[in-house]
Design brief:
This protein is an alpha/beta fold. Helices cover about 50% and strands about 10% of the residues. It has 15 helices and 10 strands. A 6-stranded parallel sheet has the order 1-8-5-4-2-3, with helices on one face. Helix 7 runs parallel beside helix 9, helix 10 crosses helix 11 and helix 11 packs across helix 12. The two termini are about 40 Å apart.
């Protein structure tokens, strides 16, 4: 195993009825910015439960944070916090709202043009320079409720970029699995695939000696395979919903990444497809992931074979045979989860996509990526073209 630091200060509060604890978790006399998305929290009753729990606090509301939160929208919230002297932010939503609040938290006291937070991938490490925030999770998927990373879209330039740092962990996250019951089928499908791919980015690299980390990752994958299709059909089943929510958190709360190599090229390419075509994040991962595995087969085949044996119970006479079956099994699962795995299923305007993405990566200086830094721009081109 490689050296690592494991730091995660988020108070993770799981289970039914936990929203009632909000008044105990937010400092007394706080002036709160209540941030949310498109309004689903009004339909499923979460808004009323949150407001009831916060009775007595001074609250300013900020709605309309988009899926793939926009820099331009978030800066409006930053100005509200500055002008009204907000002292705490509560994100009520899924990963997009929580990611947006992480940006807001860091941008309020940022000196200079806030767009540089994204352009330069700023890491915030001083908690005294950010606005504290907590979350009420309404959509399991991204793990943003228990990590310090975020992804934000700059609409003006059609870029989807990251930020993070140890100061951007939520102070607390309330995770009530009963919220899953009100989610649309498409969001449930996306959530399962998003969590699944998060694990794959940290697991599907090459053999190493972090044995327990592999077992952690494989157990999350196995659980998502077992419950994924069922939770889409029966979201009110508490057993399914609770395991789904915990899997999504565990997939990206930092634990399985410690001491091991990781990839993330699928996400880097997938973000560009979302920025260009507004394809759901999880669906871009389903497009890119299998073709990345095929393109990088020679350097990933040993881990692909292990994944195939342990997670899918495949058999074969060679590493190559088992690795190939593992990719096929993955694609079958993605299809079972309602994913299309070709870019042409989402847009007819795809012929120059590879050129656009490669040129954009080149402009940013991203000339190699992946766990071995061997996914060159030419490999990126191959992956994207194979995904057409």
């Amino acid at each position: 195993m490689t050296n690592f630091d494991l730091y995660n200060p988020t108070n993770y509060i799981f289970g039914k009825g936990q929203i009632a604890k909000l008044s105990e978790l937010i400092p007394k006399n706080s002036k709160i910015l209540l941030a949310y998305g498109g309004g689903s929290i009004f339909k499923n009753g979460i808004y009323d439960r949150v407001k009831s729990a916060l009775s007595g606090f001074e609250i300013v509301e900020f709605g309309g944070i988009e899926p793939n939160p926009r820099f331009e929208t978030l800066m409006k919230a930053v100005e509200i916090i500055r002008n009204q002297k907000i002292t705490f932010v509560l994100a009520v939503g899924g990963g997009s709202v929580i990611d947006g609040v992480k940006f807001i938290s860091g941008a309020v006291n940022f000196e200079g043009d806030a767009v540089e937070i994204l352009k330069k991938r700023i890491l915030f490490k001083d908690v005294s320079k950010v606005i504290p925030f907590g979350t009420v999770l309404t959509l399991p998927a991204t793990g943003s409720e228990m990590n310090s990373g975020a992804v934000v879209t700059i609409e003006a330039t059609q870029e989807k970029l990251t930020l993070g740092g140890s100061a951007l962990f939520p102070k607390f996250s309330i995770c009530d699995p009963t919220v899953v019951a009100s989610l649309p089928k498409r969001q449930l499908e996306n959530g399962v695939v998003d969590a699944f791919t998060h694990v794959m980015e940290q697991y599907l690299t090459y053999p190493h000696d972090a044995l327990l980390q592999d077992r952690f990752a494989e157990s999350i994958l196995q659980t998502l395979i077992e419950i994924g299709p069922d939770v889409v059909q029966n979201p009110s089943d508490y057993k399914l919903a609770s395991n789904f929510m915990w899997c999504a958190t565990m997939a990206l709360n930092g634990l399985i990444q410690k001491g091991v190599p990781s990839d993330w090229a699928t996400h880097m390419i997938g973000h560009e497809l979302t920025a260009l075509y507004e394809i759901d994040h999880a669906r871009t991962l389903a497009i890119i992931g299998p073709n990345l595995y095929r393109t990088m087969f020679e350097t990933k085949k040993e881990k692909l074979a292990q994944y195939g044996e342990r997670v899918w119970n495949v058999e074969g006479n060679s590493i190559e045979e088992k690795a190939t079956q593992a990719i096929e099994k993955t694609v079958q699962f993605l299809h079972q989860m309602g994913m299309e795995t070709k870019l042409s299923n989402y847009t007819s305007d795809y012929e120059k996509t590879a050129d656009f993405i490669v040129n954009r990566f080149e402009e940013r200086g991203w000339k190699a990526m992946g766990e071995k830094q061997n996914i060159t721009l030419e490999k990126v081109r191959q992956i994207v073209e194979m995904s057409y």
